[in-house]
Amino acid sequence: MRAAGAVPTTGGIVLGLERMRRLREFEPLRWRIEVDAGMATADVHRLARESGLVFPPDPGAAEQSQIGGNVATNAGGPHAFKYGVTGAWVTGLEVVLPSGDLIRLGGSARKDVAGYDLKQLMIGSEGTLGVITGVTLRLLPAPCLRLPLTPKPGPSRPRRVTSRFEALC
């Protein structure tokens, strides 16, 4: 997980997951994608866009940031105000605990919590509770492209930008 260019202090370590970039499962008709934690955010955006979908969180530095790091820090970004932070789009996690046990939290179902919601506990824990190795994300259909219309300037129409939009779907 790459979290804001982490630099270890004395006695600390940095765990690099950049080789874990596999697409595990992609179900465009169910608006869901499961990836390894080392996959770049830009790759998730590209895969979604190619299928007419969108992964709304955009924490910045999409070419360098990794999905596992985004989840571990619950990254936000410029779209967070409208769409929420990364954690709002996570439906499932695969995590290695400090004991070495591999656990799966959440899943593809929207509501699957019976008891404590450990998935939400892991989101934003910055690797202190375990290492995120896999993530299942929820996607959305891509919004229509909206272009502003401006009238042609002429003697009866001064040059101005209108607030009307034309939708291209």
Structural notes for this entry:
There is one protein chain. A five-stranded antiparallel β-sheet has the order 1-2-6-4-5. Strands 3-7 form a two-stranded antiparallel sheet. The protein has a two-stranded antiparallel sheet with strand order 8-9. The protein is 15% helix and 25% strand. It has 169 residues and is α+β, with helices and mostly antiparallel strands. The chain starts with 22 loop residues before the first strand and ends with a strand. A hairpin with a 4-residue loop joins strand 1 (23-27) and strand 2 (32-36).
The tally of beta strands, per DSSP, is: 9
Q: What proportion of the residues form beta strands (DSSP E)?
A: 15-25%
**What share of the residues lie within helices?**
10-25%
- How are helices and strands ordered from N to C? EEHEHHEEHEEEE
**Which stretches are poorly predicted, pLDDT < 50 over at least 5 residues?**
160-169
Outline type: globular
- Pairing-aware structural class of the strands and helices? alpha+beta
Spatial strand sequence of the major β-sheet? 1-2-6-4-5
Q: What's the overall average pLDDT, rounded?
A: 84
* Count of DSSP H/I helices: 4
Rg over CA atoms, rounded to whole Å, is 20 Å
Distance between the termini: 37 Å
